[in-house]
Amino acid sequence: MKKQFKSIDEYIAACPKDVQPILEKIRRTIRKAAPEAVEAISYQIPTFELNGKSLIHFAAFKNHIALFPPAPAAFKKEVSPYAGPKGNLKFPLDKAIPLDLVKRIVIFRLKAHKKK
Known about the structure:
Blueprint: H1 8-13, H2 20-33, E1 38-42, E2 45-50, E3 53-60, E4 64-68, H3 76-79, E5 89-92, H4 99-115
Antiparallel strand pairs: 1-2, 2-3, 3-4, 4-5
Helix pairs in contact: 2-4
């Protein structure tokens, strides 16, 4: 049975040691871009929520870090090298994570979230 995580700290601690710093960087990037968002676990992966609704998720896999949900159309060209089959982003572990792109996607989603 899969471990049931209660916090992002637990999730990151369960990941391989070499992946943990990458996840922490993504977490800090999201936190800076959306300081009012609340950390949570949803679908057993790290999630940031705003007003009880999911804003963004990230997760570690064997060869990549994924960012969910699909990137907004405004970023189509920039995210094309990272596009997964369902629109989520897949950042290879053997390359630097484009944290500025992550930040801009979070800010974009935050603005759209606040308009709703």
